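Practice record 12: protein with arginine.
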Amino acid sequence: MASIGFDHRLAVYDLTASLAHVEMLGRQRIISGRDRGRLVRGLAALLGRVKRGVRLPAAEDIHYAIEKALFKAAGPAAGRMHTARSRNDQTVTAFRLYVRDQIDVLSGSLEDLSAAFVQLAEKNRRAVMPGYTHLQPGQPILAAHHFLAYAWMFQRDRERLADVRRRTNVLPLGAAALAGTTFPIDREWVARRLGFSGVIENSIDAVSDRDFLAEFLAALSLVMAHLSRFCEELMIWSNPCFAFVTVADPFVTGSSIMPQKRNPDMAELVRGKTGRVYGSLTAVLTLLKAQPLAYNRDLQEDKPPVFDAVDAVKASLDVTAPMVRSLRINADKMRAACRLGYILATDLADALVRRGMPFRQAHGVVAAAVNYAQERDLPLEDIPLPVLRKFSPLFGTWVHEVLSVDGAVAARKSRGGTAPAEVSRQIQRLRRLLRKK
Ligand code: ARG
């Protein structure tokens, strides 16, 4: 039941934390200056070797492997490193350092992805497309407006990770097994040395808390939910029935039998990986349930789901950003799709309201007109005016001005709406947020 097979990923973090620990032991005169010097040199040499990819000796877990290697590098002084410390506070210290690092990397990737959506919006400012509800045509929108919705989602994901980082970035070391230690340690000094914002106040909580992992995985699950929704849309939009977008060659694959195929495999893989990340969240939540305080060996099982989720999210972000950047928008097809599904019906109803009719009544009048048109397979603008007037005498020649896709988009000037000026405002705000780290 060894964990070395997966927790070797923590080697750099464990060594970093151990360096701070032995320095503190020296400062506090818990170990001699000589031993402190031997340990620091030995740990620093090991850190260099680990960074170069040299393998550590076989052991139950990464912490024992490092101690074993340290005996070789520093001699018997290595036996003093574990003073005032337990693997219980040691392992979770290394894990918090790891998660903090991953948050910083992922946050950078999310920023890049957000920027890719803003660029896509800027490059395609004029394209109009149907906006959907229930995947049925709803109202016309700017394609840029749709892309920016994703930029906002990934901005929120960054904020969520920043919030998780705050609660992750506190030091458990010094809790020892669970009750604290009899040695005069200086936890605040270690915290500062490792860049933690402070120490965990309760030693029992320090070794048993894994909330930061559940929060981290919940934040990652939402990242994947957002990626998966976008990828699903790419699959729909690149289907020839839509043909709104062309996914670039590196992100599609052919078929071994059907020569015409351009399957959006990368998008499908991202959608598929979403399930793995949700699985990791469920694994950690289930792991925590019903564990008595404080440390239990169950907690060793917290690592594989986190490593797996981090790998999946990184791979997904790394493929999605270039996929977004290389997306070709087929504005003609998008505009043509606006002729389907009577997407200007709301605009017609709104126009009746502006001429004095209560909205609920206008809704019924336009529904009747749409039914009439649908039965005859006509667009709304081809219903003869005398027929329209039978539905309501308020109809007039103005109908043709109202039945314009660009007019409908331009008219939605309400804050956050799809009118070009509002979309430009969003682009500016996002640009500012992306510059500010
Ligand atoms: N490898 C263990 C983990 O990841 C280290 C802590 C072991 N502590 C113990 N008392 N058995 O949780």
